[in-house]
Amino acid sequence: THGDSSTFIIMTGLSRMAFQELSTAIFVDNNQQPILRRGRPELLDCNAQLGLYLFFIGSTMGIKHLCLIFGVVPSSCSDVINKMLRLVVKKLKNHPLAKVRFPNEEKMASFASLIQAREPSVDDVIGFLDGLSLTSECSSEVIEQNAMYNGYHSDTMVNNIFAYGPDGKAFLCA
Questions:
Q1: This prediction's pTM
Q2: Neighbour count for residue 78 (Cβ, 10 Å)
Q3: What is the rounded distance in angstroms from the CA atom of residue 90 to the CA atom of residue 84?
Q4: Are strands 149-150 and 128-135 parallel, antiparallel or unpaired?
């Protein structure tokens, strides 16, 4: 069943086409022959595993709630999340669509003209900055833990800054 596309976007944060493109990038390897598995089949197919992963990274939902949504036990849920964390980093590390690259001069000129067309008083601007603080797990290393502790929020956080072009894609992150 396909359901409403807007529901799909709300649930995963991606359009159906973007979800399929991400799934292909993660699970399809053109250089390898299919691996014949023995034993019990996996409880969740590739798309369900990706959906579970997207729910996990995109919400503050606990494992028990994810288990209810996906119909798996906590140990299976945890195994899928750990597998997907490793797999996503491995597959997207060098994938061309996952790269964050500063635009070349031609692209910067294009961005500046797009922005000026929308806001005529703004000149020579190629993008917009936004910050994000992500809560992270506490580290057992005292020095590392101290570097990420934010006394204002009383939590361990990693601060990020992103620069976006008018096309909505991040072209710089720190």
A1: 0.64
A2: 15
A3: 10
A4: unpaired
Cβ pair 53, 83 in contact under 8 A: no
The string over 37-58, giving b where at least 16 C-beta atoms fall within 10 Å of a residue's C-beta and e elsewhere, is eeeeeeebeeeebbbbbbbbee
Q: What is the DSSP-derived secondary structure letter of residue 71?
A: T
Half-sphere exposure of 24 (CA within 13 A, CB side): 8
pLDDT tens for the chain, 174 residues long, are: 444 555 556 666 778 888 888 889 898 875 555 556 677 777 888 888 999 999 888 887 888 999 998 899 999 999 999 999 999 999 888 888 888 888 999 999 999 999 999 999 988 899 988 887 776 666 667 676 666 655 555 566 677 888 989 988 888 888
Closest CA to 158 of 132, 139, 120: 132
